Amino acid sequence: MAATGAASTDVENREWYVASYAPTGVPNSEHIKLRTVSLSLRADSIPDGHVTFQVLYVSIDPYVRTQLSGLDDGLSLPQIPLGQVIRAFGIGKVIQSKDAKFSEGDIVLSRICPVSEFGVMPSNLLQKITPAIGIALPDYLSCLGMPGITAWVGIEKIGNAKAGLNVYISAAAGGVGIIAGQLAKVKGCRVVGSVGSDDKVKLLKEECGYDDAFNYRVETDYDAALTKYFPNGIDVYFDNVGGKMLEAVLNHVNHGARIALCGMISEYNKVWTEREGVRNLLNMVGKEVMMKGFMVGSYYNHFEEFIKEMEVYLKEGKINSKHKIYNGIGSFLESLASLFSSSNVGKVILQVTP
After folding, report:
1. Res 3 pLDDT > 70
2. Is the pLDDT of residue 1 over 50?
3. 114-123 tens-digit pLDDT
4. Residue pLDDT, tens place only, 6-51
5. Which domains does the chain possess?
6. Please, which contacts does 281-289 make with residues 24 or more away whose CB atoms are closer than 8 Å?
7. Is the sign of the CA dihedral 85, 86, 88, 91 positive or negative?
């Protein structure tokens, strides 16, 4: 439902909620469902210090999958309670405000935006954004949002990428990987990425500045592929995949290499006893490798530093933003499942309201 004229009335608000947990496999319509609830947007129904808003965009991220398993495992994120609305990073437009800092029409960002058409939230959980000239709203959920700062942390703060280093990015055409590789190029590194199709290989090399890339579905002997693409070894590895790929990387790391463990999407849909083990961790000892897992929320104290740097790169055309947009609140399940199909290029975003 459109927000026009809605500020003084009730709306039928469609929202996605958790119906049952999915310990394994990709969540489907048995696990997450769409329902319609009545939501009052009248000023007298809004608590003090709260804001009502129409949801414009929702970020679709792999970490949400780990909150739908019903298991205390992996990323250690809290499970979304059964019957509760799914939340994610999102952008909205203010309809009513009971906080003087927000006005009707303001564009706001939330890290826990409901996956719905409308929302009511405490104002201290919202951040006002003023889109810069030449920067589209979806960029605030990609290059200037969680994927952007995740890539930045892995490449700059953990990887310590510097000119001349050999950098490898797995899932390099995904929402985080596609930014991470470009950031490493800005730093003067030699960058190679792995992806799931020949079209993505072409994209990375022709549009994102990668020095090389390979299709892991074609070059299935990862150890041989890394020998081919990294004859001088790997200095920085940004890991989005885990499993067999991580094991192969450890056979090619240089002394003092740094590995940023961002995610392990190859393992998200399995219980831990079914996941691929890494058998060559001893290589880390002999080569004094630093491997660090990280949750980006621990680095939000660097957000202003990140934004200042990234906005410059965007305006100078040094970072090429790529989005896969799914349209309409009804497309959430499809957009979430797409993360595990290698069908997307760049950041997956749900456009709730045109």
Report:
1. no
2. no
3. 999 999 999 9
4. 556 899 999 999 999 999 999 999 999 999 999 998 888 899 999 9
5. 10-141+323-351 (3.90.180.10), 146-299+307-313 (3.40.50.720)
6. 281/250, 283/250, 283/251, 283/253, 284/250, 284/253, 287/253, 287/254, 287/255, 287/256, 287/257, 288/255, 288/256, 289/250, 289/253, 289/256, 289/257, 289/258, 289/259
7. negative
Q: Give how far the C-alpha of residue 208 lies from the chain's centroid of Cα atoms, to the nearest Å.
A: 18
d(CA 13, CA 292): 42
- Whether residue 245 contacts residue 170, with contact meaning beta carbons closer than 8 Å, is answered with yes
Beta pairing, strands 190-195 & 212-215 = parallel
Label the pairing between strands 127-128 and 107-114.
antiparallel
pTM over 0.70: yes
